[in-house]
Amino acid sequence: MAASYTQGTIVPKNPFSAEQAAGALRKAMKELADRQILRLEVMSSHTNQQRQEIFTSFKTQFGKDLRSELMSEISGRLQDLVLALLETPVNYDARELKAAIKGAGTDDGALIEILCSRSNERIRDIKQAYKTLFKSDLEEDIKSVTSGHFKRLLVSQLAAGRDESGSVDPDTAAQDAKKLFEAGANKLGIDESTFNRILSLGYAHLKAVFEAYQQNHGKDIEAVIQAETSGYLQDGYLAIVRIAKNPPAYFAQRLHKSMKGAGTKDSTLIRVVVSRSEVDMIQIKQEFQRLFGKTLGSFINGDTSGDYNYKKLLLALCAED
Q1: Distance CA 165, CA 23 (A)
Q2: Under a CB-based contact definition with an 8 Å cutoff, are residues 258 and 268 in contact?
Q3: DSSP H stretches of helix in the chain
Q4: Which end of the chain is more exposed for a tag (fewer CB within 10 A), N or C?
Q5: Pseudo-torsion of CA 233, 107, 7, 16, nearest 10°?
Q6: CA–CA gap between residue 241 and residue 219 (Å, rounded)
Q7: Number of Cα atoms under 13 Å in the Cβ half of residue 178
Q8: Which three-class secondary structure state does DSSP give residue 265?
Q9: CB-hemisphere CA count at 13 Å for 259?
Q10: What distance in Å separates the CA atoms of residue 73 and residue 309, rounded to the nearest whole number?
Q11: Rounded to whole angstroms, how far apart are CA atoms 321 and 319?
Q12: What count of other Cβ atoms lies within 10 Å of the Cβ of residue 5?
């Protein structure tokens, strides 16, 4: 992915004491009036690394599992959100992938989002965590619930072989743009194998490819993909294009899609907020405002109004409280 300066809304708390935070949580659990307020404050004002230290300190000091203690008092969407915050990022991704492929229907959007937006190292760590947690191979499990060129696209992402050097050669980018043109807009149908191969290259290179495509062939690659493909393969191709062009805008679109219409897809809303809160949530909020003309906070506030504490914690994680 092309390097750029990004900012999270959650930053390390300083000064920080895991012992004091764990003690405050323990005290709050005994005082009904304050405990929900303090729980929300602790969850939203510490980084994931600090939360892990609080978790360990709580067990060390009190001989109890913080996750179990919290889960016994909350339920529903708030419980899902707090569990996500207590999980390490790698384990959380592994669990989200497992949730996406188990049961009656596959959540292909979650597979695309995670596998197309994580670094090579992160994907390798996710595969190992998945094997440890579920005693199963992630690639084999994904292959068992997907098919065709969409399956091949996901397997390519699981290979964790994107060039992450950030290097760009304009001539090579122009050549790849021409190959994409000849494999899609310039022929009847689409050569998915060529698209899969090129779209699995480095993100900095791909950004240059898409610019060359527009300049040399007079077409927008997103419009071509939308015209020539369909279904989850189209979703996967578009995700890669949008991540290469502007990662915060891609995640802003994911958040908007999770909340627009009649029902909220809370699994997507929670995953994007939790996974990006320490990475680029400030830029995601800016892109959300630019793309949709409203603040992210106003969308969350309107879409989660039926669950006050769930809404409050989401807003706090986005620095919209």
Answers
A1: 44
A2: yes
A3: 18-30, 32-44, 48-62, 66-71, 76-86, 89-101, 108-117, 120-134, 138-145, 148-158, 170-183, 192-199, 203-217, 221-228, 231-245, 247-259, 266-276, 281-292, 296-303, 308-317
A4: C
A5: -160
A6: 14
A7: 6
A8: coil
A9: 25
A10: 13
A11: 6
A12: 6
The three-class DSSP label of residue 237 is: helix
Q: How many helices (H) and strands (E) does the chain have?
A: 20, 0
What pLDDT is stored for residue 2 in this prediction? 40
| Radius of gyration of the chain from its Cα atoms, rounded to whole angstroms | 21
Contact between residue 136 and residue 102 where contact means Cβ atoms under 8 Å apart: no
- The token pair that represents 276 in the structure block: 């990006």
Q: Which residue bears the tokens 């399956």?
A: 151
185 dihedral zone (left: phi>0; alpha: psi -120 to 50; beta): alpha
Does this model's pTM top 0.90? My answer is yes
- Biggest alpha carbon distance in the chain? 69
For 274-316, the DSSP string reads HHHTTTTHHHHHHHHHHHHSS-HHHHHHHHSTT-HHHHHHHHH
* Token pair 């194998």: residue: 193
* 273/9 Cα distance (integer angstroms): 10
pLDDT tens, position by position, 265-296:
999 999 999 999 999 999 999 999 999 999 99
CA 92, CA 125: separation in Å to the nearest integer? 11
Q: How many CB atoms lie within 10 A of CB 155?
A: 16
CA 72, 43, 84 angle in degrees (round to 5)?
Answer: 65
Residue 263: pLDDT band (50, 70, 90) is low
pLDDT in tens, 102-156: 977 899 999 999 999 999 999 999 999 999 999 999 999 999 999 999 999 999 9
Count CA within 13 A, CB hemisphere, residue 172.
Answer: 10
Helix (H) or strand (E) holding 73: none
| pLDDT class of 306 with cuts at 50, 70, 90 | confident
Q: Is 74 helix (H, G, I), strand (E, B) or coil?
A: coil
**What angle do helix axes 281-292 and 266-276 make, rounded to 10 degrees?**
130
Close Cβ partners of 256 (under 8 Å, ≥ 6 residues apart)? 288, 291, 292, 299
Residue 37 pLDDT greater than 80, yes or no: no
